[in-house]
UniProtKB/TrEMBL annotation:
GO terms under cellular component: cytosolic large ribosomal subunit
Subunit structure, as described in the record: Part of the 50S ribosomal subunit. Contacts protein L32.
Residue ranges, compositional bias (Basic and acidic residues): 178-192
GO molecular function terms listed in the Swiss-Prot or TrEMBL record: structural constituent of ribosome
Transmembrane stretches, start-end: none
Alphabetical keyword list: Ribonucleoprotein, Ribosomal protein
HAMAP family per UniProt: Ribosomal_bL17
Any one biological process term the GO annotation gives: translation
Biased amino acid composition, Low complexity: 129-139, 150-175
Protein name: Large ribosomal subunit protein bL17
Length: 192
């Protein structure tokens, strides 16, 4: 039975796994988004989120703790510089895993993208637009009274008429089997 065994060993020894997660975390911090397998992304999330929480408190002690895990000075500067300022007001959940539809060719492994949530500009813009739309005053009353109360002096445009049938002057061509559309059009023009 596997009760209480929560660590995914990823088919590696402990030293190999720690080195791999450290390198992946450095790449994630530097590039803000990396592509990997779903299993590695879930293991990376458990590894990197405590480091992001420690980066909120910029002290020598927290820098040393994070450097002991990462071992990369450039990633440490980036983490305590730009990343910590963006995640400062977020209470956890700093990463997002987006599963991709394709799989890896060699072993059919499920692929995904893991990214830092606060650095995806398109989703942030969509969220801000949704908040602005929701900020419009909502009313429980129907808005049909405004149309009925329109002054009599204003002219109201008639409703648009929509045709459901094709126009009569549309030419149609019948294409025989093994014949291209251009050949069929040339045959019909020759016949008429």
């Amino acid at each position: 039975m596997r009760h209480g065994k929560t660590i995914n060993h990823l088919g590696r020894t402990a030293s190999h796994r720690n080195a791999m997660l450290s390198n992946m975390a450095s790449s994630l911090i530097l590039h803000k988004r990396i592509s990997t397998t779903v299993a590695k992304a879930k293991a990376l999330r458990k590894f990197v989120e405590p480091l992001l929480t420690k980066s909120k408190n910029d002290t020598t002690h927290s820098r040393r703790l994070v450097f002991a895990e990462l071992g990369n000075k450039e990633a440490l500067k980036e983490l305590f510089g730009t990343v910590s300022s963006k995640v400062a007001n977020r209470p956890g959940g700093y990463t997002r895993i987006i599963k991709l539809s394709d799989v890896r060719l060699g072993d059919n492994a499920e692929m995904c993208i893991i990214e830092l949530v606060d650095f995806n500009e398109t989703l942030l813009e969509a969220k801000n637009a949704g908040e602005a739309k929701a900020a419009a005053p909502a009313t429980r009353r129907s808005r049909s009274k405004k149309k009925a109360d329109a002054p009599a002096g204003e002219a109201v445009a008639p409703a648009a008429v929509v045709e459901t049938a094709a126009p009569a002057d549309t030419a149609t061509t019948t294409v025989q089997e093994g014949e291209t559309r251009d050949e069929a059009k040339a045959d019909e023009e020759a016949a008429s």
